[in-house]
Amino acid sequence: MAKTKKKPESGGLDLIENPEAFVSKTEEFFNNKKNQNIVFGVGGFIAIVVFAFMGYKYYIQNRNNEAQEEMFQAVYYFEADSLGKALNGDGNNYGFLDIADLYSGTKAANLSKFYIGSIYMKMSDFDNAIRYFDDFSGSDMLLQARAYSLTGDAYMELEDFEGAISYYRRASDYKPNEGFTPAYLSKLALAYEMNGEFGEAANAYATITENYPNSPESTSAKKHKARLEGLIVE
Prior knowledge:
Layout: H1 13-17, H2 19-31, H3 33-79, H4 83-88, H5 96-102, H6 107-122, H7 126-135, H8 143-157, H9 161-173, H10 181-194, H11 198-211, H12 218-233
Helix pairs in contact: 3-6, 5-6, 6-7, 6-8, 7-8, 8-9, 9-10, 10-11, 11-12
């Protein structure tokens, strides 16, 4: 006796061909009190998360605006080379240390860390300079690479050439450009040379001459590259 084929279940196809069935099933789902509680519970949780996020953004924006106003006097002192007042305030206005602490999480607090690192560099407090530059995080072309380079300078002053190499490499690799990268590569080459890595130093100079031939650093890079290659041969 031949087997009869079982008719395939229509499944979701019925819902497409018969929209009323979908509406009916939806009403049935929502008419169930347990399902209502689940839906409203999930919806309420999502709403709470959204409102909390929006509230936090609003709070941070206000805090950032306030911090930027507080920074005005500290920046003035920094540019006037009144480093103590720029760092610690003047009794009436906050210094960068206060702003970084009191307005944590804002863009102004983050930028304050760059200023603090720069001030400590000028004060020859290289350990604190490294600490604050490491805490700074920027996304623009100039400041983040500059922070890496200054951190490299601090390590050079401490005669930690490995540390200097690491940060000069970061500076030269960060969003390479004609304006600043050749200078960072020159610093990298010097750090390599001070660390006795003449081949790596020559390679750094070669990168300048090959990738940035029109830069002010290109001419001296050629001379230093030739000098280092002579040392390698010897």
